[in-house]
Write a structure and sequence with these properties.
elongated; 69% helix; mainly alpha
């Protein structure tokens, strides 16, 4: 138990350090770079969603990340807990009815789940927007939207939506996501990624790496705003 608590606290400290680096880097206004936007057509394409040049397309792109990632995460939990054969009793229409007719609750999940796992997932949603040229305010709104979608439409079939998750996930996830985004910009200043930098980027922003098919040469060609 002691080592589990220490691991959770150490992870939280790392997340806070990255998040604080993002706070200082968040601009007060949207950054506009005419040279950057004039060369958007020359940006390298990923393996799906080649064009994410509008809010609606970025919402669609973020959903393409949210749903498979959530499904994979839930599947992993069910395999770990030996519940894979009991899904018909876990996902019920009765629970969905409660989800949409009763107010959200304050959950009592573990500290590591609420303040480590959820912020990490929130950062993925934030980066899904930020990486596709969204202003940080739009990315925050997108993370909040995805958190609500997750609580009501994905986890809502198994448990009542959590009000603390819907509040803390986008807030902490956006701070962490912006920290990762600014760290990535620093790593890409010289348009080159070393082995350690590739590992850091893959771990901290995996869906961007997957988007480019683990082609780090393409990633080095991207102009992040």
């Amino acid at each position: 138990m002691f080592w589990r608590k220490m691991k959770a606290r150490t992870t939280l400290l790392i997340l806070l350090v990255i998040s604080l680096s993002g706070i200082h880097a968040i601009p007060a206004e949207a950054q506009v770079n005419d040279t950057l936007y004039s060369s958007l057509s020359q940006q390298p394409h990923g393996i799906w969603f080649h064009k994410t040049n509008s809010v609606f397309k970025r919402v669609a792109y973020s959903q393409a990340i949210l749903w498979p990632a959530s499904a994979a995460g839930h599947l992993g939990l069910y395999i770990r807990d030996g519940e894979l054969g009991n899904l018909s009793n876990i996902y019920t229409l009765r629970m969905y009815k409660r989800t949409f007719t009763l107010p959200p609750v304050w959950d009592s999940d573990t500290f590591s789940w609420n303040y480590v796992v959820h912020p990490i997932m929130g950062s993925f949603s934030y980066l899904a927007y930020r990486n596709k040229r969204a202003h940080w305010a739009e990315a925050f709104a997108g993370a909040a939207l995805n958190s609500a979608i997750y609580e009501y439409f994905i986890a809502g079939a198994t448990q009542q939506p959590s009000i603390n998750d819907m509040v803390m996930t986008p807030i902490l996830g956006s701070l962490l996501g912006e920290g990762i985004y600014q760290l990535k910009k620093q790593m890409l200043r010289n348009r080159h990624l070393g082995i350690v930098e590739k590992i850091v980027m893959t771990v901290s922003d995996p869906f961007e790496v997957i988007y480019y098919g683990f082609n780090y040469r393409k990633i080095c060609q991207v102009n992040y705003r």
